Amino acid sequence: MNYLRRRLSDSSFIANLPNGYMTDLQQPEPQQPPPPAPAPSSTSPAPERRQISQSPGTGFFSSLSNAVKQTAASAGLVEQTPTSLTKKFKLLLVIDEPHNEWAKMFRGKKVHGDYDIKVEQAEFSEINLVSHSDGTCNVDMQVFRNGTKVVRSFKPDFVLIRQHAFSMAENEDFRNMIIGLQYAGVPSINSLESIYNLCDKPWVFGQLISTYRSFGAEKFPLIEQTFYPNHKEMITMPTFPVVVKIGHAHSGMGKVKIDNHHDFQDIVSVVALTQTYTTIEPYIDSKYDLRIQKIGDNYKAYMRTSISGNWKTNTGSAMLEQIAMTDMYKLWVDTCSEMFGGLDICAVKALHGKDGKDYITEVMGSSMQLIGEHQAEDKQLITDMVVTKMNQAVPRMPIPSPQRPTATQQPQSGALKEGHTDPSKLPPQRPPPQGGPVQPQGLQSQSQARPSEQAQSLSTQGASPPLPPAPTTQQPQPQGQGAPPAGKMENQLRQSPSQPAPQQKPQPHPQLNKSQSLTNAFNFTDSSFFRSGNEDETKAESIRKLRKSFASLFSD
After folding, report:
1. Nearest 5°: CA angle at 465, between 461 and 468?
2. Beta-sheet strand order (sheet of 127-131)
3. Which residues contact 381 (CB under 8 A, 6 or more apart)?
4. What stretch of H or E contains 110?
5. Helices (H), 422-484
6. Which of 108, 233, 255, 435 is 20 to 30 A from 329 via CA?
7. How far is CA 409 from CA 418, 478, 510, in A?
8. CB–CB of 239/229 below 8 Å?
9. Closest by alpha carbon to 383, among 155, 126, 158?
């Protein structure tokens, strides 16, 4: 026992061991990994060859290569293949108030004949989102349904917006949500571009002014209006009475009727507190107001008359009546539906004064409220239009995302130009240990098949047998690019040790894996890392048997 202890502690005994086998004595016996599946490449090894066990140096290099791969993948330097399951449905996000149930309207509807339409409905205040440049938009929804809080996360394929994206009321500015949906390129009705442009009424009125100049006052009667960016310019005294509209508001909010200049000065001080723009229109003593709506190719015209006597016909009691659609009304709504790239759902509001003239005041988009006795018909029209648009805009298969920057190899001196080598014309290669360089097939076969000839040629020259040569980093050249003949390579092997063979410049190959490229980059040339697989396997087995014997002796 003392002899064995002294023998194992002797430095000369450890020095004579193959490189890395001392660590093998300190580690438990490794389990044999399952045989890997054969690669579909044409240069895959023959099935009868065994998997060569990795030496400790190669295992270190493999772990280093795997660490580099994982770091590069997490940093987005290499492209990863997404493994997403194909959805059996297309998800429609409807932004509307909860009392308008859209899920039952799309029940049984399909996209591309194969995908059901799943509806998620919420208000702007109940959703949040994160958008990516690859076209994905993750929406988080938190809603209360029958006293129960419902939290969901999904990726919408299409959006139907039936709610105002911007209002002057507190916490009702949701333009950031429109920007997020547009950032991811989510198709919608109306278009996200038009919805964003409709968020400021003076901006929309500027488009109406252009139409008014094109058609004239007879065909397109637009009301006169004055715009003030802030309260500082509100010094001129307009003709009274006037209607002051503060900011961007809906349903009669922010509209004040001014009858004299004293009230006008008071409203200027109120506008100063709001820090927003203001528009002023002459007050029209109206008989009724008009609403001409267009949903797809369907037109309807309504007349609303105030009963309560309020100057705002949309405030208090009013009587609504559907009227005949005239050519002039159709011209108004068709012209306005072409604004901002096209409006699938829109409505034009106008006033019919007691003087018998019409005055166009406003244009609304897909957020317009459905009115009259035909609301069910209008909802069905919107549903059919959404299904049609989804078949046109939503792809059957997911669109590939923009490519991320991939890790590139630094070209070495004398490297072949990438992309000009046909892999099918390359000779078959024997797979080296992971992390090791690739040797030409002809060189491997000659070094293994003619050991006696090498020894004989060296003995005739009077030279002592050399140490095992360090592996060359020369890569196999494809046919037609001047591969060295076998005779010339044999002459290089028979050279004397005093006459070293000229160093071959390493040439990168398109089929090198990333671990081999990393090997060349670090210039590992120690022969202990690249020993013959059969020799290392035999020595490893002997060392394991010795270890078991020593363990049994020490245990006694």
Report:
1. 130
2. 127-131, 137-145, 148-154
3. 295, 296, 298
4. strand 110-111
5. 441-449, 451-460
6. 255
7. 10, 20, 10
8. no
9. 158
Contact 348, 325 (CB under 8 A): no
Asked if 322 and 301 count as a contact pair (C-beta separation under 8 A), the reply is yes
Dig out the tokens for 242 from the structure: 């006037």
DSSP per-residue codes, 125-166: GGEEEEE-TTS-EEEEEEEEETTEEEEEEE--SEEEE-S-SB
Question: In terms of DSSP bridges, do strands 188-189 and 318-323 run parallel, antiparallel, or are they unpaired?
Answer: unpaired
**In 10 A of CB 47, how many CB atoms?**
7
Q: 93 and 139 in contact (C-beta within 8 Å)?
A: yes
Q: Taken in order 331, 336, 342, 346, is the CA torsion positive or negative? A: negative
Are 223 and 281 in contact by the 8 Å Cβ rule? The answer is yes
Measured between alpha carbons, how far is residue 142 from residues 145, 149, 175 in Å? Answer: 10, 7, 19
Return left, alpha or beta for 266; rule: phi > 0 is left, psi -120 to 50 is alpha, else beta. Answer: alpha
pTM for the complete prediction?
Answer: 0.59
CA distance 376 to 100: 11
Q: What is the CB-side half-sphere exposure of residue 72 using CA atoms within 13 A?
A: 17
